[in-house]
Fold this sequence. Notes:
The complex is a heterodimer.
Chain A: H1 28-46, H2 51-62
Chain B: H1 6-25, H2 28-44, H3 55-73, H4 94-109, H5 112-122, H6 128-135, H7 139-158, H8 171-188
Helix pairs in contact in B: 1-2, 1-3, 1-5, 2-3, 3-6, 5-7, 6-7
Amino acid sequence: MKHFKMTERKDDKPAGKPNKQSHGTDSAFDLWLNRGLHELFDDVMKEPVPPELLKIVQDDKKK
Amino acid sequence: MTTPTFHDQVIAILPKLRVQALALTRNRAAAEDLVQDAVCNALSASGSFIPGTNFAAWMHRILRNRFISNLRKRRDTTDIDDVPANTFATEASHEDRLALKELGAAMTRLPADQREALVMVVVHGMSYEDLAEATGCAVGTAKSRVFRARRQLEAWLMGETKERGTARLPSRVARVSDRSDREDSIARL
């Protein structure tokens, strides 16, 4: 797993930009991003579908 | 096991359509309208769907085309603040929530096609091939959209000026991100 420091601590050397090799999808940032997107959108996925939307489909099915 | 009917498939994909619509519109009410419009379009065009082909891609493409069509009629963007607070309701810590809010805000700044691509790959777990089919582009373009979205978000959230110690944002994002990475490392042990 590629890893780079993203925190700024007293013992940090002058921080450079994150390692270019971190630009896969397994960098710390990408892992955090994946989790963050799930946090933002998973609740929407879990919400019940509005009844009026279901009714549109079901009414069409009866035709 | 019986094959799901066309209408069963429409109902089953509704949650994913709602996520796609929210990713595109950035607005809850507009997303609900978009899904409803797309569903009506799909029901009208049910005869054009070829059973056995990729229903999800077909349906996502209809929603996307409808979004583009609406955009042409009315250029209209709104802020992520329109997304109800419960979209962000999680058990996360205060710091995590702030980082998430910053991510949500940064997402709104991405071009719609990149935002949509990133959400469909990460949240829906869609393959690049399916994404390409759903969005009517080449697989390479689909990959590129996701890649550019990730890198743009990283640049915004991590700050290009980090080396000068003046990162505009996110020590918070960095801390949360760093912690997630450590937890993953531990989980793999």
